[in-house]
Write a structure and sequence with these properties.
Elements lengths: L3 H21 L7 H21 L4 H4 L10 H31 L1
Helix pairs in contact: 1-2, 1-4, 2-4
Length: 102
């Protein structure tokens, strides 16, 4: 259970970030399903990458030795998932737009 909840937070936040970017930048929109899928993948990847950066690793990492869920870490994972989902959706939208023009 303690492993599944952070993954769900990252997936949901990433999907939300992807949909926000799709709505804000219409030329990057992949459709609701595309934004959600790419955003969810970006949410996982963004949180994983943030955990490798010194200074951000404490934002997304759970405190060692705590019993139960660390809500601060979940909030950090949600924030990095949101940003990661938005960034990956924007990248995929740029690639889609570039290939559609050629």
């Amino acid at each position: 259970m303690e492993v599944i909840v952070p993954l769900l937070v990252q997936l949901i936040a990433g999907g939300a970030g992807g949909n926000v970017i799709g709505q804000l930048a219409k030329n990057l929109n992949l459709g609701t399903t595309g934004n959600s899928i790419v955003g969810a993948i970006g949410g996982l990847a963004g949180t994983w990458l943030a955990g490798m950066i010194p200074g951000l690793d404490s934002l997304v990492g759970a405190a060692a030795g705590t019993g139960g869920l660390d809500f601060g870490a979940l909030a950090g994972q949600g924030a990095t998932g949101l940003v990661g989902g938005g960034v990956l959706t924007a990248i995929a939208g740029i690639i889609k737009s570039a290939t559609a023009k050629s």
